[in-house]
Amino acid sequence: PGDVQVLESLRRRREVLCEALARAGLSIAGQRPRAGGFLLARLPEDIDEADYVAALASHGILADAGSSLGSPGCIRLSFAERFDALEDSAPCFAQVVREVRRGERRTPRPVEQQLGEHQQQQQQQQQ
Questions:
Q1: Is 82 helix (H, G, I), strand (E, B) or coil?
Q2: Residue 111, class by beta-carbon neighbours within 10 Å (0-12 exposed, 13-18 middle, 19+ buried)?
Q3: I want to staple 99 with a disulfide (CB 3.0 to 4.6 A). Which of 4, 9, 103, 104 is the partner?
Q4: Closest-CA residue to 63 (of 48, 50, 46)
Q5: What's the gap between Cα 82 and its chain centre?
Q6: Are 63 and 55 in contact (CB under 8 A)?
Q7: pLDDT tens readout for residues 31-88
Q8: Residue 60 backbone class (left: φ over 0; alpha: ψ -120 to 50; beta: rest)
Q9: Burial class of residue 60 (count of CB atoms within 10 Å of its CB; 0-12, 13-18, 19+)
């Protein structure tokens, strides 16, 4: 039963992320993953992956550029995050598309700051 719950939780998280990406104009590269906790999303042709990854980071969302994984024009995202974190980040994907298209630059938050915020949230949830 525990494995079924974990798989169902990952499925729900994957769907939240896939829906947010679709609303932003991104598509899933290949088939939707049925296992694991990552997916590859194909960016619109007019969006530079390095700019998109940097802009996501400025919103506290970490992604890998697809070029570094042999999939140019894509980004890799994890859907193994907390469900509420995925829901909260959902509007950012479309917002970042708009920012990149307008050429807006935001200062990325340091990874250490993002990790510290994540740890604080986890501690608050445990209390």
A1: coil
A2: exposed
A3: 104
A4: 50
A5: 12
A6: no
A7: 776 667 889 999 999 999 999 999 999 888 999 999 999 999 999 998 877 878 888 8
A8: left
A9: middle
